[in-house]
Amino acid sequence: xxxxxxxxxxxxxxxxxxxxxxxxxxxxxxxxxxxxxxxxxxxxxxxxxxxxxxxxxxxxxxxxxxxxxxxxxxxxxxxxxxxxxxxxxxxxxxxxxxxxxxxxxxxxxxxxxxxxxxxxxxxxxxxxxxxxxxxxxxxxxxxxxxxxxxxxxxxxxxxxxxxxxxxxxxxxxxxxxxxxxxxxxxxxxxxxxxxxxxxxxxxxxxxxxxxxxxxxxxxxxxxxxxxxxxxxxxxxxxxxxxxxxxxxxxxxxxxxxxxxxxxxxxxxxxxxxxxxxxxxxxxxxxxxxxxxxxx
Length: 295
Prior knowledge:
Blueprint: E1 9-13, H1 16-22, H2 26-36, H3 48-61, H4 67-77, H5 85-91, E2 97-100, H6 106-111, H7 115-118, E3 120-121, E4 135-137, E5 140-144, H8 159-174, E6 176-177, E7 182-183, H9 184-191, H10 202-205, E8 207-211, H11 220-235, E9 245-250, H12 256-264, E10 268-272, H13 279-294
């Protein structure tokens, strides 16, 4: 893969792969929460983070439960990991840095069914966010960037947590670093330091291949990173940010507005045909495309 500052490759995997093999959708999770707390669906609400806040606020107001308990309920609903050939094909790619927005451990399990005994944990003390938390398995790191099942309080699903996460991310990347007093990210890029790395840094150093992620505008942290990266590329060329971001998506499922925004941010777009709504076939083709790029 080359050195850390020679644009090694990384994967960013969303829930699309899970949906292709087991049809697990975020809408099902929210539906189950509404059923548990006896709440009606809200017609026309397409924002999962805001719908989660509505469920949480209604449950708290009724004295049914606290937010921490709702996060624990989400963790209980997450399916145990299963071996899937499709997911294994992505784990077989020669990539050492794997980011995922998923809360489950399908990626780890498909990397090694013995991951529970083989994994090494990062030494982070984070309790609410997951900037520095990862698992290492056979020299490959998996980062659950939106939280994970074993740490329910890290699960990023509500509007409040998305906002606090973005604030924490902005603080981490832009705060001055001693002794140079340059922002943390600038310092890392200029001095090629690899200690104390948080996952947002990869958006400025790695060639990232984004798969199975709708990139809706609810993903405020990811959109901010893409925008911030482009600003730095244009405004501070001495940082030498020259990595590539690749986005793979079904050509019939992405809004023109999203495509135009990504194009303005310098994202390389890879529309894929979705024939007969065969998602597995499409993701297999994407995996082959990434494999050709890597080799």
